Amino acid sequence: MKRLALICLIVVASLWMGCTKTVDEYATVMFYIGDVKINGASIEIGVIIKENDRLVTAGQSSCDLKIGDSIIRIKENSKVLISQLIKKGAVENTALGLDVGKMLCKPKKLMKEESFLVKTPTAVAGVRGTKFTVEADIMKTTRIKVYDGRVKVIKRVEKLEGSIEKIMEGAPAVEEKEKVVVTEKDVEKATKRVDDILARESGEGFEVAVVKVIEEAGGDVVVSRKEIQAFKVEDFKDEKSELIAVEERPREVIRQIAAIVKMEKEKPKPDGRLLITRYEIYFIKNGSVLWEGKVVNPPVRKDDRIYIASGDYVYCASAEGPVLWRKNLDNDGRLDIRDDRLIVHARGGQKSLDLDTGQE
Q1: Model confidence over 257-288: pLDDT tens digits?
Q2: Where do you find CATH 2.60.120.1440 in the chain?
Q3: How far apart are CA 164 and CA 169, in angstroms?
Q4: Cα–Cα distance between 171 and 222 in angstroms, integer?
Q5: Residue 337 backbone phi and psi in degrees, to 5
Q6: pLDDT tens-place string over residues 83-131
Q7: Residues of each domain in the chain carrying CATH 2.40.10.480
Q8: Burial level of 335, CB count in 10 A (0-12/13-18/19+)?
């Protein structure tokens, strides 16, 4: 009988653990450019992201994460903590900590029981499916802009960490084309108000005191309607374009990038390698993607060389991919070869470059 009871106990425990198990394997590094570290080590495309992982991007670097059906781009000079990754069946609960830097967020359309939170040192943003950006600077000032959808924002008061979602219920939504700024001074003011109420109500127990805080100081903790501002479309033009472009890349493209990254690690070329797909151009050197551009016009070919321009660079590569030269030149993507010279349609006029060296 005791053995049967023990078996039943084990079965029940197993079922309970199965229902509450945290699953983090659904979060991966989708893409990155430049120098990105995870827990102090170099990152790779496809690597699994887990709770409590820390990601750091250097200057001119970025990292795209895929968490379930949500996509996040971590911009340059950012420090991010993966605070929570919980998946129970189809339900996802995600929390990211942005210590400093900037993130572009495209969360999935959330169900009622799901959550997607971004925490900075001074604010917490919660959404149910939208596109927005979050910035946090070294002065602990948080800036949040909403591209579409709705975001609720509260000031991050440490003693109320366990009641974030309850407090957020009373927060007005930051709507499309609206922004909000939260400073360390704002949080200090809210914290003092909370501390005063908790001290006064301490005899009733912490949970009861928190209820009092929400009733009396909820308006001081949430970002109020008067703190929300409209912004001009031109202020969001570049971010809007980038947010739209943050998408999961085709698997074949990822395989090609991974193969060239591996090749560059094992047999590096002095000037790196170029990968041209149908829509993008990737410059890969020292085992990392260092630059990405759009294919504006098809490449121009001469003998065994390929010439292509996009955005701020012009490239010359051999047909096999190794880069022969590249030139930093702001351009509109149009190239011609005339009289053994490469004609680039640059900003401010045409530029004539030597086919062999790229020199003007």
Answers
A1: 999 999 999 999 999 999 999 999 999 998 89
A2: 21-183+219-245
A3: 9
A4: 5
A5: -115, 120
A6: 999 888 888 889 999 999 999 999 988 888 888 999 999 999 998 778 8
A7: 251-354
A8: buried
323-328 and 313-318 strand pairing: antiparallel
Q: What is the pLDDT of residues 28-77, one digit of tens each?
A: 999 999 999 999 999 999 999 999 999 999 999 999 999 988 999 999 99
The CA-based diameter of the chain, rounded to the nearest angstrom, is 95
Fold of 21-183+219-245: Jelly Rolls (2.60.120)
For residue 124, what are the contacts with CB-CB under 8 A and spacing of at least 6?
A: 117, 118, 153, 154, 156, 164, 168
What is the CATH architecture of 251-354? Answer: Beta Barrel (2.40)
Nearest alpha carbon to residue 119 among 188, 165, 75, 50: 165
The pTM of the full predicted model, rounded to 2 decimals, is 0.85
Which residues, listed in sequence order, are joined to residue 135 by a DSSP beta bridge? 102, 143
Question: What count of other Cβ atoms lies within 10 Å of the Cβ of residue 10?
Answer: 10
Q: How close are the terminal C-alpha atoms of the chain, in Å?
A: 90
Pairing of strands 313-318, 36-38: unpaired
Whether 316 contacts 355, CB under 8 Å: yes
What is the residue-averaged pLDDT of the chain?
88
Residue 256: strand, helix, or coil? helix
For the stretch 335-352, pLDDT in tens is 999 999 999 999 889 999
> Residue 227 is encoded by which pair of tokens?
């703190």
* Secondary structure class of 166 (helix, strand, coil): helix
The rounded distance, in Å, linking the Cα atoms of 316 and 302 is 10
